[in-house]
Amino acid sequence: MNDMPDGAISQLGEEDHPIIHSDRGCHYRWPGWISRMEKAGLERSMSPKRCSPYNSACDGLFGRLKNGMFYNRDWTGVSIQEFAENTFLNCFVSF
Q1: What angle do CA 84, 20, 28 make, to 5 degrees?
Q2: Would the pTM of this model clear 0.85, i.e. be above it?
Q3: SS3 content of the chain, % helix, strand, coil (to 5)
């Protein structure tokens, strides 16, 4: 369960502090997850309780991006800056 966040955290530069969105799942309250986020300087975000439209909007957006961009691709060597400026916007606009 921690391989993916640990791998992502290892790619961050000292000035990178993305916001991590959660749906209030068990990992969000797990002490190991909380300490990882705090140690990496990441901001945690979550949906308000009983707010399905908010959560479904986030899940829909990130689900589409994940399917379209991350599966069957190797992003090794692409900086966060390159990803944000070029790849993310191009892929998002094409959806």
Answers
A1: 160
A2: no
A3: 60, 10, 35
- What is the phi/psi pair of residue 15, to 5°? -90, -5
Q: Quick check: is 78 in a domain? A: yes
By the 8 A CB rule, do 23 and 50 touch? Answer: no
H helix or E strand, kind and range, residue 28: helix 26-29
DSSP letter at 92? Answer: H
**Whether 69 and 39 share a structural domain:** no
Say if CB 65 and CB 90 are below 8 A apart. no
Count H helices and E strands in the chain, helices first. 6, 2
Locate 22 and state its tokens: 């959660």
The range of the structural domain enclosing residue 25 comes to 17-46
Each residue's pLDDT tens digit, 28-85: 778 888 888 888 888 877 666 665 565 666 667 777 777 777 777 787 888 888 877 7
Token look-up 């606009």 returns 93
